[in-house]
């Protein structure tokens, strides 16, 4: 009776044991393919250190296509690796090979994007520094308008928004490197050439603020002043823009007194001062012609307060006397 009663218990234990063994076997069989799954890296997902036999096999296949001259098949294979195994070491190699093919063919925009994939995902790659340098060269070529964007070597106009995006990536990929300040300065130049004063000023001000020790900082300040002067000449808020330009030039003199642009800033300040005096005198003459004596006297006195000698000073003093002012 006890033997019969114990039998179901033994069978139950055997069943549980068998189930555990089966589960472990299934886990083991799944583990054999686990390396083929896309690898999730650490914080930010930017460092690839995992290996994948399947990705490595595809990489070898892609290189065989490339060596045989079948670049279309090679590119397709490299893209497959990045799609299915984006954080594997093989994906980094695939991105670099893809970028080099596109670079050689003259499809520089797509090459830039492939270099960006390597830079953002595979910072441990032996090709990382090369990708950084080549991407910078492509971005500045685009800014200079000399970029080829297809394998026929044809050139088309590149929108400033696209150029700014490319230069922004160069800046952000290595924010502490000299390439970052150069990229930010070039963004300002791009918008200045386009005639977009507000975007150019914003880019230059970021340049002077974030990269004040850069050799491009004094030039960024000077160009900001130049744009403000032009805005004053063409816009309605002349006084505000002139005052802002004066502040910029003075800032340049204070921060970079020995820079070559310091002398230019001094000349600009002298010129602005002369323009201010002339403007005040012209306004005074306008009010005198209208018979508005008090307003005229106000601006004649402004002339004499801004300068202590010269033709305009003498004329203003004479007008003040004629109008009965002190």
TrEMBL record:
Residues 1-18 form the signal peptide. It comes from the Bacteria. Keywords: Signal. PROSITE patterns: PROKAR_LIPOPROTEIN. Residues 167-304 form the Outer membrane lipoprotein BamD-like domain. InterPro entries: BamD-like (IPR039565), TPR-like_helical_dom_sf (IPR011990), TPR_rpt (IPR019734). This is Outer membrane lipoprotein BamD-like domain-containing protein.
